Amino acid sequence: MKIGIIGIAASGKTTLFNALTGGAAHTGGYGASQLHVGVAQVADPRVDKLSEIFKPKKTTYATVEFADVPGLGEGREAAPEKDSIPPALQGADALLLVLRAFDDPGVPHPRESVDPARDLSDMRVDLILRDLSVVERRLERLKKLVMKKKDPDEMSEFELLDKVQKSLEEEAPIIVQDLPEEELARLRGFGFLSAKPLLAVLNVGEDRIADPAEGFGVSAGEGEVPPVVVGAQLEEELAQLADDEREAFLADYGLERPARDRVIRASFELLGLQSFLTVGEDEVRAWPIRRGATALKAAGTIHSDLERGFIRAEVIGYEEFLRAGSMAAAREEGVLRVEGKDYEVRDGEIMHVRFNV
Known about the structure:
Layout: E1 2-6, H1 13-21, E2 36-41, H2 45-54, E3 58-60, E4 63-68, H3 87-90, E5 94-101, H4 116-149, H5 152-169, H6 181-187, E6 198-204, E7 224-230, H7 232-239, H8 243-252, H9 259-270, E8 273-278, E9 283-290, H10 295-302, H11 304-308, E10 310-316, H12 318-324, H13 327-333, E11 337-339, E12 350-355
Parallel strand pairs: 1-4, 1-5, 3-9, 5-6, 6-7
Antiparallel strand pairs: 2-4, 8-9, 10-11, 10-12
Helix pairs in contact: 1-7, 4-5
């Protein structure tokens, strides 16, 4: 699962990318055009606690892949380029929009003033314009094809895109258009940007890291998740420190955990993901799955053999396990449940799959 990081120039996109992934991509290149890709671990106190208990050889956290994509246009003030949707974003499952909310005379804002609410509004429009450009070009081609041979599939696509076009022209992103799942599935191949879930991240100065997003006039729109406030420069420095140095650094700022953890967690949830856990002396691991996934699908996430030969799953909630103290005690108390392949797995449940192939 991949999230595309977007934002206008000088917003701190690459700085945030480094903070999230522990990378060292070059920053400071105003209008940089290089794509960066990296992976971030999803901090999970449950995994930490279970590792303390089982003392495994290996501890593995769920991860999210981020792609730092070169800055997009300026919304109402700039028409999309010919290739309206950057290839790196077509395959992204969601978007993280970095909004500049800090002053720095040494790095002027492209619009000559810092206004994250304005930038958010303009970027929403930019995404819509790019999708609209793709729709218009496709409709123009389909119109010629339909007139030639009246193909039912092409006529159906034409009608769908014509409907989408009308809504886009009214500045309604695809994600909020009332489209049935079948039609949404037909649109996925286009990689439309306004069809992707969006998380806005306010990049602030160190003096405002505790301020709420509302204080910047920014709130989630329809189809979006609540914005997150982060000091990307501070978080980038934190990501490069050793654990003991990081704790001292956080203490100096009166923080318990890096804000990047909140961004990564929000990104994870933006993708519609949750984690189930497996435990043992060899490994304690968090496995990402879609919300609503079944035990059979969870088994396949671990290994295809487990899905193919699935018999049953032994399941216990994280808090239930802590109260029991061990798997043996959980069995004796009857809180370790046996579930079938259609069981809907809940976030944080510990699972052991029985299978035979």
